[in-house]
Design brief:
Number of helices: 0
Helix content: under 10%
Radius of gyration: 22 Å
Number of strands: 42
Distance between the termini: 44 Å
Shape: globular
Structural class: mainly beta
Strand content: over 45%
Length: 510
């Protein structure tokens, strides 16, 4: 036997409801809740019971899913080498007590077991092909093992018991019980008085969701939303001239547009055809305890927060593009097929503010995307952004804080606090002009990074902060208590971050 020592970020998983919700609610009293096996799961595209990993919770068998992207004959070139076709195993269960987990590899010759984020007390028995650990509180993490030269991964979400379960008797609730539910692409469930969609643990909902002009609605539960049945928009037709675009709302995983008082809580999403969750031009959004499993098409960004009054917390995001994008352009849904950029009829930007992101785990796939992508485009402003208690598991081709800012948005007043990076990719920010997919003229200012732990040496902390002009610039970056493998950063020049003359007022503060 051998021990693997790791540290794990923890978030409390609480649940709140929408205003004016009249459904009756009950509280689960069970100390450990394992969800039932899904009968006929093979009827769901790209889903099966896992044949790679098994899990026992206090010696009781848990049902483990496996989700994967199905290769399309028109597959995009970016996708061809993706890990998405191999897929990922996934399980969630709830408990309010300490539990012992035994992960078993069902295939032979498993080796090089890992747990991310790292934590203490993990025991690997290579002879029995098992990994054992004790969980004392809610956690979201990844277990992996190398089998015949290929790494296979298992997402595990340990959650508090559900606090709000709507009544089946409420006519405003679409209550999806354990089993299979197939509703198709761009489904709007919030019609005919439905205000709550509840996906129970042990239920699989095969659908993508598009909702517009909604108020006081919920998408909640501990079930799984599977989306491998929808190809990427750019593979939507054999005719290249007739293909849709990745930002088209009909081709997103879950999108709310022009809506208010929305709660998305507890659900898991697998194999999204594009952006996994987008809230565009919305107000007062709560997203909590989401498990975004990635392993879908390219450009399957985790969450787009193109709204104001957003709370995103206690969430695991795996994606093979950006984990979170703060602001950008979205499909206005006006019926136009024209593809233009910032300020057009088809795609538009909106000012966003008061976005709070906390207790997160980020897992970048396919060496692609940033964790917090401030923007690719955007318009108006993006202000008062707070990001805290975050673990970034893997470095990618971008960085923890990233931007390809060709839009006109003024991005300011951002705080990043209590962050652990298991890599050295801190910044990859480039401010561009109108020749970079947008109207140009945007800027970034007043950014504080505090209590950032980076698992890298000074020289390994790299990438860039690049402004475009005195008008499109980066100004006011403050760093406080930036811990590295070589000690605390006392001078920005210790880092291997490229800058230019349009980046001003970088300050190390005590």
């Amino acid at each position: 036997m051998k021990k693997i020592i790791i540290t794990l970020l923890v978030g409390l998983l609480l649940v709140v409801g929408c205003k004016n919700d009249t459904s009756k609610e009950v509280v689960s009293q069970d100390t450990v809740v394992l969800y039932p096996p899904v009968k006929d799961i093979d009827k769901i595209h790209g889903m099966s019971e896992s044949t790679i990993f098994d899990l026992k919770v206090n010696n009781k068998d848990a049902f483990v899913y496996h989700t994967r992207e199905i290769k399309d004959e028109h597959e995009h070139v970016k996708q061809l080498k993706s890990v998405s076709y191999d897929g990922v195993s996934y399980v969630n269960f709830s408990t309010n007590e300490s539990v012992t987990l035994e992960v078993k590899c069902l295939l032979e010759n498993a080796s090089n077991w890992k747990v991310l984020p790292f934590r203490e007390g993990v025991v690997v028995n290579e002879e029995n092909q098992t990994l054992t650990l004790t969980i004392n509180q809610p956690e979201k993490f990844v277990v992996s093992a190398t089998i015949n030269g290929k790494e296979h991964s298992f997402i595990i979400s340990v959650e508090l018991p559900e606090m709000l379960i709507p009544s089946k008797d409420d006519k405003g609730v679409l209550f999806l019980e354990p089993g299979i539910h197939q509703y198709g692409q761009a489904w709007d469930p919030y019609v005919n008085g439905i205000h709550t969609v509840y996906v129970a643990g042990g239920a699989i909902l095969e659908a993508t969701i598009k909702a517009k002009n909604k108020k006081n609605v919920k998408l909640i539960g501990r079930g799984f939303i599977s989306q491998s049945f929808v190809p990427h928009a750019e593979e939507s037709s054999e005719d290249e001239n007739a293909r849709e675009q990745e930002w088209d709302a009909d081709w997103l995983g879950i999108v709310f547009i022009d809506s208010q008082d929305v709660v998305i809580d507890g659900i898991a999403i697998g194999s999204s055809p594009s952006y996994q969750v987008e809230v565009a031009n919305c107000k007062d959004i709560v997203m909590r305890n989401l498990k975004l499993c990635g392993f879908g098409e390219h450009n399957n960004d985790g969450v787009h927060t193109y709204s104001s009054g957003v709370l995103l917390e206690d969430t695991f995001i795996a994606s093979n593009d950006d984990r979170i994008c703060i602001t950008g352009l979205y499909d206005k849904e006006n019926g136009s097929d024209e593809i233009q950029w910032d300020g057009s009829d088809e795609l538009t930007g909106v000012s966003v503010s008061n976005i709070r992101i906390k207790n997160m785990v980020f897992w970048g796939l396919d060496n692609n995307g940033g964790d917090i992508m401030l923007t690719w485009n955007g318009a108006g402003f993006a202000k008062d952004i707070w990001v805290e208690n975050v673990v970034s598991l893997t470095g990618t081709n971008k960085a923890f804080i990233a931007a390809r800012h060709g839009g006109s948005a003024d991005i300011y007043n951002l705080t990043f606090k209590n962050v652990q990076l298991n890599h050295g990719n801190l910044f990859d920010v480039e401010i561009g002009e109108s020749n970079y997919q947008g109207a140009g003229g945007g800027k970034l200012r007043n950014v504080l990074l505090e209590n950032i732990t980076i698992n890298a040496s000074f020289a390994e902390i790299g990438k860039q902060l690049i402004g475009e002009s005195t008008a499109s610039n980066i100004d006011g970056i403050k760093l406080k208590n930036i811990q590295t493998n070589e000690g605390v950063v006392t001078d920005f020049d210790q880092l291997n971050v490229d800058t230019n003359t349009f980046v001003t007022n970088i300050e190390i503060i005590k």
